[in-house]
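Example record used in the benchmark description.
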Amino acid sequence: MDIIRIDQLASARDAKILGKSSVANFLKWVNSADALAIGVENISIRELRWGKSPGKPSHEYLIMVLDHGALRAERDAPSWYSILSPNYRDKCEDTIIYKNTPEELLDHRDEVLATLHFRKGDVQVFHLALLLSAISEKADFYNVYTINCWWYTCCLWNNLAKLPHQSQYRFHMKIDWIDDGSIIKWNPIRFGRRMQLIHIGGVRRGIGADGHRVGRIVERVL
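Model output (structure tokens):
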């Protein structure tokens, strides 16, 4: 079967998928008659890369390497109003960026914290679309303490990592500061959970007692 190249599809150009697009627009295109007829949902996701931009707070996102091309998924917000409270719900901006190579999706100062390689066909755009739809339905808001870019990246990573059997993927951590002495026992889902705990711990130290409520909010959403 020939590899489907998103950058060569007229429907992708017409839907303005090439470059930066909202998740809603991306899902509309993936589920369109033109995309379904071509089999876009069957495109394999061959690799995940957990990206991190420097800053305080840092920004995190997920790069997904396809058979040809790559996607970057992330959550942001138009303002910092949610810093007022863990219960404040700001509008979220969920986006997908398409580029021909994954390197184009990584800013020059960013780092990749971990990578996860899949066999062809084990994880597909179809699975990504279902997951993005579920997130949009159940957590369509942004809060700097809880449902933020860290949570979004972790949610995508952990759920996609659950699809294949452990023996059928290759996981590699590119950071050493997270190691607690059990690194050889880790798998990608443990890594994702550990990252989430690190972020929750940072919030607890920053805002005190409200940090425990942050943990409960994060744990009960997806």
